[in-house]
Amino acid sequence: MGKDEERMAALPDLITVAKFRELPEGGEFAYELHYGVVVPVTRPSGRHWDRQAHLVSLLEPRLRGFGRVGMEFAYRPLAEFELRVADVAATSWARYRGMDFEDNLRGAPELVIEIKSPSNRKGQLQELAGLCLANGAIEFWVVDLDRKTVSVVRSEGAVVVYSTGALIPLDVFGGGELSVDEIFA
What we know:
Elements: H1 3-9, H2 17-20, E1 30-34, E2 37-41, H3 46-62, E3 67-76, E4 84-92, H4 93-97, E5 105-106, E6 111-115, H5 124-133, E7 139-144, E8 149-154, E9 159-162, E10 167-169, E11 177-179, H6 180-183
Parallel strand pairs: 3-5, 6-7
Antiparallel strand pairs: 1-2, 3-4, 4-6, 7-8, 8-9, 10-11
C-alpha cells in the first residue's frame, strides 16, 4: 500500500443523513450526525427540558409574526453530513412553509438556542455557533442555567452576554425584547 492509500485508509467512513436515518433508534442516548460521524448525545434532564418548554412559551407570542418556534428542532446545517437538534429554535414563516416535511429544515434555523449542560465539551458550543451562523442562523444563544446568563452570538460576529435585569432585543425577529429575568423565572 502506498502512502496516499495509507492516508485514505485512515479516513473515517462518513455517514450521510440518508444512512443515518436507517440506524435503529432507542436506548440510553439520542444521536446526531456531526460532520458525517454519528455522535451520542444525552437526553435532557428535567431542569433542561423545563427551560426549553419555558423558552418556547416566552418566544412564541413575541415571534408570532416572524415564524415558527419549537423545541427539539431538527435541522441540517450541511445538507448531506449533518443532522442536529436545537434545544429551541425559530425559523421564518417562509422557510418553515417551504420545508419538505418528510425531511428537516435545510440550513440552520434563524434563531438557535442551546441550553448549556454538563455534557457540553469545551469549545463545542462555539463550534456549533460557527456552524449555525455560517449556514443560515441570524443569532445563536447559549443559556447558562447556573450563571443565569444568556450569551447571544450574532451573525456579524458580535457577542453579548445578558444577565439578570437585562433585556435581549428581538428586533431582527420582528421587534420586542425578552427579559433575562423571565427566562430564569
